[in-house]
Amino acid sequence: MDDVIEAQGEIGTVKEIQIFNTRLLTANNQTVYIPNGSLSNGVIKNYTQEGIRRVDLTIGVDYNSDLKQVKEVILDVLSKNELVLKNPAPSVLVLALADSSINIAVRPWTNAENFLTVHSDTLEQCKIAFDTAGIEIPYPHQVEISKK
């Protein structure tokens, strides 16, 4: 019990396995009952069974960015977060040369119970570190067209 699973389009913590259905508690405190027949015939994804999880983030940086510096800044952010595991080591790599950004894959590992915190903290701390280092995150610009 207390495993976090995804099944039948629902994600929640297993609270009780009854004779005909399984009771899940979602992250926003909703109770969901899934028939055991559906569970036994469908795919179940268990997010907590292994004890650790990899956080998969994508952060876009400007094409003028120094990629070596970008990677160093991100790795520094990850190394300062005590919830990020040292083993397996986090990875930071170029994911794509997209239309308006170079997309960087940021993949730290953490204990399953810290997944959401590491996800949020990594994004926040990378933004702060990028601002300090002068690394720009591109965003769509709207151009106002004046009518004459």
Q: What's the rounded overall pLDDT mean? A: 94
Query: Care to count the β-strands?
Result: 10
**N to C succession of SSEs:** EEEEHEEEHEEEH
Structural class: alpha+beta
Radius of gyration equals: 20 Å
Q: Give a quick account of the main beta sheet: strands, pairing sense, barrel closure.
A: 5 strands, antiparallel
**Which strand order does the major sheet show?**
4-3-2-1-5
Question: Low-confidence parts lasting 5 or more residues at pLDDT below 50?
Answer: none
Query: What coarse outline follows from CA principal-axis ratios?
Result: extended
- Share of helical residues: 25-40%
How would you describe the overall organization of this protein?
- It is a single chain.
- The chain is an alpha+beta fold and 148 residues long.
- 26% of the residues lie in helices and 33% in strands.
- The chain has a five-stranded antiparallel β-sheet with strand order 4-3-2-1-5. Strands 7-9-8 form a three-stranded antiparallel β-sheet, covered by helices on one side.
- Helix 2 crosses helix 3.
- The termini are far apart.
